[in-house]
Write a structure and sequence with these properties.
Elements: H1 2-24, H2 32-52, H3 58-74, H4 83-104, H5 106-113, H6 117-139, H7 142-154, H8 158-171, H9 176-193, H10 199-215, H11 220-232, H12 236-249, H13 257-270, H14 272-280, H15 282-285, H16 304-313, H17 326-343
Helix pairs in contact: 1-4, 1-5, 2-3, 6-7, 7-8, 8-9, 9-10, 9-11, 10-11, 11-12, 12-13, 13-14, 14-17, 16-17
Length: 344
């Protein structure tokens, strides 16, 4: 809204600069009275000189006429009839300059205001790319490469993002953002280009993403991209754990919802133990055992026997499950033991 108001003000100022000189007409002459008096004196003296002939008064008349002419010459020139037009032309030029400036400043912001926040950010990133790229290539600084890479990645200009993050990692190979984004770009390049991704390239891409997650375990994007990468390689359980971790770090994040649902369904179908867990335990302990209302089962140090007792008899806020089949309890205990070992 502020951009629209500012644009309206600029238009009004431009119109005023063009029309005001024309409205005022010819500029006033501040020396008009003196100029008129001197011109009248000059005309009178010229008349007397013409009638004097060889009269003895002639030398005096000539001196007075000369003084009058010098006084007229000393006055600044009177404004001509084209003054208003010149002022209007100057106003038009100034208005054009203001309009051009607005076209590259106010108008783009006005157009961005009609987009949602994500679209506006992407458009702004695209507009900034040439300058960010030129700066990075000129300075060769790590921060400039990262700024270029971020703008390119966020705007979907992935070829530039690959170049920018690759150059940043040459300067410092332990940068989580550059590592994970370069890894996911390499991993998904085949989908964008239609080319088949080789096993070596896929392994390298996965290594980059894993390394980034190890360097920044509490970064939401690290866990998100790790989850996508593990799912791509068929490691459904580890992928689900990473994506659940992502949701814990970023509760408002919705990027992994569909994949999380698909992984849960796949795991429950493939693993009967997970089916039992999903039906009886996930509502309190989380879909991947990472905790919720109940504690994190992956960090538990209970023995198999202690866990079996709690399942059957309950403990504290946890209800008992006395009717659970022995075979289902066995499946649960094996699953929980596996989670405990993976968490050590």
């Amino acid at each position: 809204m502020a951009s629209v108001i500012l644009l309206g003000v600029i238009v009004l100022v431009a119109l005023w600069l063009v029309l005001e000189p024309l409205r005022r007409g010819q500029a006033a002459d501040p020396d008009a009275a003196q100029r008129t008096e001197l011109l009248e004196q000059r005309d009178v003296l010229y008349g007397e000189l013409a009638a004097s002939g060889d009269d003895t008064r002639r030398p005096d008349l000539e001196r007075r006429a000369a003084r009058t002419l010098r006084a007229l010459d000393a006055l600044p020139p009177a404004p001509g009839p084209g003054g208003a037009r010149r002022l209007a032309l100057g106003g038009a030029v100034l208005a054009l300059v203001i309009t051009v400036i607005a076209a590259f400043t106010v108008v783009p912001r006005w157009q961005l205001a009609s987009l949602d926040a994500t679209e506006a950010a992407n458009v702004q990133n695209v507009l900034n790319l040439p300058q960010l790229r030129a700066t990075a290539e000129r300075t060769g600084a790590n921060a400039d490469y990262l700024a270029w890479g971020k703008a390119a990645f966020d705007s979907g200009t992935y070829d530039q993002a690959l170049t920018a993050y690759g150059n940043a990692l040459k300067l410092d190979p332990r940068q989580p953002v550059a590592l994970r984004r370069l890894g996911i770009l390499l991993l998904t390049r085949g989908e964008r280009t239609g080319q088949t991704l080789g096993e070596k390239d896929a392994t390298q891409a996965a290594l980059l993403v894993r390394t980034a997650a190890q360097l920044a375990p509490n970064d939401a994007e690290s866990q998100l991209l790790l989850g996508f990468t593990l799912a791509r390689f068929g490691q459904s359980q580890d992928a689900l754990s990473a994506l659940e971790r992502y949701r814990t770090l970023n509760p408002s994040g919705r990027d992994a919802d569909e994949l999380i649902t698909a992984l849960r369904t796949r795991l429950q179908q493939d693993d009967p133990a997970l089916s039992v867990y999903a039906a009886n335990c996930a509502s309190c302990h989380g879909p991947a055992g990472a905790g919720g209302i109940g504690p994190n089962l992956r960090e538990s140090t209970l023995t198999r026997e202690a866990m079996a007792t709690i399942i059957r008899q309950g403990k504290g806020a946890m209800p008992a499950f006395p009717t659970l089949k022995d075979s289902d309890v066995t499946l649960l205990l094996t699953l929980l033991e596996g989670w405990q070992k993976a968490g050590k």
